[in-house]
Amino acid sequence: MSRRSYASLITWLTLVLCAFGWTAHARAADLSEPIILVAKPELGDFYRATILLVKPLGNGRHVGFIINRPTPMTLGKLFPEHGPSQKITDPVYLGGPESVNMIFAIVQAPASPGGRSLRLTNDLFLAMEVDVVDHIIEAQADHARFFAGMVAWQPGELQDEIQQGFWYVRDADSELVLHKPATGLWEDLVHRSEAADDAI
Fold first, then answer.
1. Digits of tens for pLDDT over the chain (200 positions)?
2. CATH (domain of 184)
3. pLDDT at 16
4. Which candidate, 114, 22, 28, places its Cα nearest to that of 69?
5. pLDDT score for 68
6. Do the beta carbons of residue 186 and residue 49 sit within 8 Å?
7. 60 lies in which domain range?
8. Is there a contact between 134 and 148 (Cβ–Cβ < 8 Å)?
9. 18 within domain boundaries
10. What distance, in Å, lies between the first and last C-alpha atoms of the chain?
11. Is 142 helix (H, G, I), strand (E, B) or coil?
12. CA 65 to CA 54: how far, in whole Å?
């Protein structure tokens, strides 16, 4: 599995990115804790109606994944010769417009799945290396979500977007990240965020 072709996924994702009119990188800021971003209703184009898990990387940089945009693709369709992938019926999610040729795994576990995996929250880890993602597919798929692509921010960008009112900001929540189904989740979070704003 370490050298699988992502051609079919890349082709599909390219069409999706064009359809949503995405032309510019997302923007990030110097926020020190993992957060959930909920797109405000007026935010359009590629990030319309999205929810993102965001993690600071240091030096004002951040990485994030859209957690509520399932694609028609599954791991089984992408990797038809890989037996463990055939057993996973959940869709691959479009994590963002960057590095769409990579499959990332976010797994809920008490300890790191290995390699250079990045801790996202107390019990969520991001796996990027092919061998580690393979192991999660084979042994921890019931507690994982798989993404094609990510969102990356440069110093100061996310802070600017939040100040401009693009996003509602919530504490990172593991159960929310792995919530099934994703349908209706954005509407629910917008309603709760608006209610919280009204109460202030």
1. 544 444 455 444 444 444 444 333 333 333 788 999 999 999 989 999 999 999 998 888 889 999 999 999 999 999 999 999 999 999 999 999 999 999 999 999 999 999 999 999 999 999 999 999 999 999 999 999 999 999 999 998 898 888 899 999 999 999 999 988 888 999 999 999 888 776 65
2. 3.40.1740.10
3. 45
4. 22
5. 96
6. yes
7. 27-199
8. no
9. no
10. 51
11. helix
12. 7
Both structure tokens of 137 = 């597919």
Read off the tokens for 46: 């590629």
Q: How many distinct structural domains can be found in the chain?
A: 1
Q: Could you give the CA distance from residue 126 to residue 130 in angstroms, rounded to a whole number?
A: 12
Write down the pLDDT at residue 160.
86
DSSP state of 183: T
User: What predicted TM-score, i.e. pTM, was given to this entire model?
Assistant: 0.82
Residue 12, domain member (yes or no): no
Burial 160-192 (b: 16+ CB within 10 A, else e): ebbeeebbbebebebebbebeebeebbeebbee
Residue 176 lies in a domain: yes
CA 76 from centre of chain: 20
Other C-beta atoms lying within 10 Å of the C-beta of residue 5: 10
Q: How far apart are CA 73 and CA 41, in angstroms?
A: 27
- Residue 2 falls within a domain, yes or no? no
Sign of CA dihedral 187, 164, 69, 48: positive
